[in-house]
Model the fold of this input.
Amino acid sequence: MSAITDPPKGGFHLSMLIYDSRYRSMTIQIVTLMLFMLGVAWLINNAAENLARLGKPLSFGFLWEPAGYDINQKLIEYNSQMSNARAALVGLLNTLLVAALGCITATILGVTIGVLRLSNNWLVARLMTVYVETIRNVPVLLWIALTMAAIIHSLPQPKAFRGDNATASMIGDAVAITNRGVYIPKPVLHDGSLIVIGVFLLSIVAMFVFGKWAKAHQAATGQILPTFWIKLGIFFVPAILTFFVMGNPITLEYPALKGFNFKGGFHIRNSLIALWLALSLYTAAFIAEAVRAGIMAVSKGQSEAAAALGLRSSWTMNLIVLPQALRVIMPPMISQFLNLTKNSSLAIAVGYMDITGTLGGITLNQTGREMECILLLMLCYLIISLIVSSVMNWYNNSVKLKER
Amino acid sequence: MTKKVSYVRTEMLPEQTPPLTAAGPIAWMKTNLFSSISNSILTVAAIIALYFILSGLLPWIFHSSWAAGSLNECRDVIKEAYGPDASGACWAVIRERYLQLAYGFYPPFPGGEMNGFAPMEGASLPGYFRPNLTFILMLVALSPILFSALPRKMLWFSAIYPFLGFWLLWGGSVWVPVMAFMGFVLAGLAFQIIGKMFGSLFGVIAAFVVPVLWWIALSGYAADMMQSIVPVGLLPIESSQFGGFMLSIIIGITGIVVSLPIGVVLALGRQSDMVIVKALCVGFIEFIRGVPLITLLFVASVLLQYFLPADVTFDKILRVVIMVTIFAAAYMAEVIRGGLAALPIGQYEAADSLGLDYWKATRLITMPQALKISIPGIVSTFIGLFKDTTLVSVIALMDPIGLTNNIRGDANWNGIVWELFGFVGFVFFVFCFSMSRYSMYLERKLKTGH
Done:
């Protein structure tokens, strides 16, 4: 026996919009939406009026005008006659470059530090704790400025390499580490070099295919192949063989001291190195904490079970603990990668020409188009963030524990 | 029948000390430093690294000079005291400029002409009287929030403090903050009166509408009128004179205090069943989290004025505070959403089965638990926000890092780097490290598990 109340009868009253729970949420949403639209309309109207008053209505034509400034660190062809859009692209590529480099080194450093922090070696664990706490509690801008100052003040100037009583010397006559940056040899491609590169890429593919096959082979027969050495062979041998068969089609251009500076080779600027180093060291401390939390989240029974099976401690870590910890580590790690990418906008403090330095810096100041430049700048970062997070979420889903 | 026993020990022997390898420092070293070959290698490597770092750093820190007028003088003093090869820190720059690093260009004795304001202070008061008093009162206002053992009545002072602190720092007529505070009083009154007359929903609406109308239309006139009747005021200080750690603390603390409630609202919005509200919250949070803070600061410094009517101008520090706050609020929302999602669904169902409505269930059941779970995340967002206040140096505000450039611009201190960065970094470390320790204390205090 249950008491069923009749649905309310009678017509529709205006007050039901507020007091009837069936309609209330709709009312609230519509009012919210209207207020939001009104607010946005008000802001846009203000912006349009103000821009019209200042005589610079919204237009993106300035992007195709010559930029008129040089960029010293560039991945693609660029000179000051090219357009502002091209300058922005150079900046965008620089942002992506430092972000990618930073993510790789920060991951390596962070995982190492996180694992070492849990080491049963008292001294090492304490040292790593001190490192993490020191890095995390000081602003990243300060670390960037500090790294830049360290490079400028403690590395030798190019002139220290000159003369008979030179105080600094190049490493193997190929790499020069100066306070203006690092000079490394640059590969020069001749005829036939494409074949070598093609063979090299193919051998990388072959390496992965072999790895997959070896795994299937082990699963089917139980036979363990010396995969590491075979992979190493596949990686190096075919490319080196074709290199000599084609008659050395790739040569290196070495940097050499000419006048006051080094000429030739690749010049990796000190600003790039400082930013890269500082962002890696900073983010590594956060990744180390994520790794530590992830490893601690794996229950102790797992490593005890591995020990009972007789696995040695490095295998326990690599085969049992890390794969399980990875699921916990991935989400915070993704947000650290995103943070690193966003923090790379602090390049402006060391003069590295990333997209904030080109589009949001010189282009903005020269053209006076604040609105367009900053909107585009935000859009670029937003797109990068969305792409990185969706790729990483896809990966995260693929390693996730498959549950019913 | 007795059996003859050759020997029976009648008393206990004294305990022997354990072997050296099982207890004491040697055993400790064996288990903690040299338990295996790889461990021993690690230990030796760590000792070597530690030696190199400390042997470089310690002499530099302690072979220093505290009394000198310029960098060159510093170097001479150090050479005289510690030998010709010694290179040490020139802490004299901190001794000379610590006030600037702390307060920026804030005048130590605001006074002189009174500009029509009643003389409330003079040279007889100690230097930096106003910022120091504001700082001490801030500690008083924060203490009942941070430590629950203190009397709850102190929270009333915490509620008044933002207005008092604003008036002490920026000066001007006392009636401006008083009238701004009146807005909140009116909101409370409107909620009470209209809520009683027409129902709580209208009360809430009135509590939003009435103070906004008051601030836009009336509070300015009321403040002017009261100032002409009872002139009470302090000498106004320009925002451009603010700087140093004072600026970091102003931006940081305001951002921290305001971003938490906004973050709670955004997190609730994101968890809500209402599609439009949810979409707006998600869009806002993802947009803010997708762009670097520096672009938002650009917006604050050059773009915000475009979006406001031509005759409305905002103070630069206020603009920055707004941007930093909404930046932190978006991150806070995600942290709190994590806490809400981590609650067992039974908690929500239990609240429903008790017949609590949405706001009561949120306020009494789910939100307190969610906030407790997310304390570590909330505090690390706070720490991040406080560290991010240094970015304002990019838009030419004089925060400590901006001031280091300024000090280097002085001919006497040209070329000084490590001392300034070291000092600024140390102060930030002290602030942030104590915040993280406080969060650990809070976690322990609120822990209810076994």
The longest helix of chain B spans residues 200-229. Residues 112-123 of chain B have pLDDT under 50 and may be disordered. The beta strands of chain B are 172-173, 233-234. Residues 328 and 385 of chain B are 6 Å apart (CA to CA).
